[in-house]
Amino acid sequence: MIPMRPMTTMLRIASRLMLVIMLVIMLDGCIGKRITKANVDQVTEGMSKKQVESILGQPTSSKTEEPATMKRTTYIYRQGKDSVTIIFQDDKVQSKDSTLSD
Question: What topology does CATH give the domain 35-102?
Answer without folding.
Answer: Beta-lactamase Inhibitory Protein; Chain:B, domain 1 (3.30.1450)
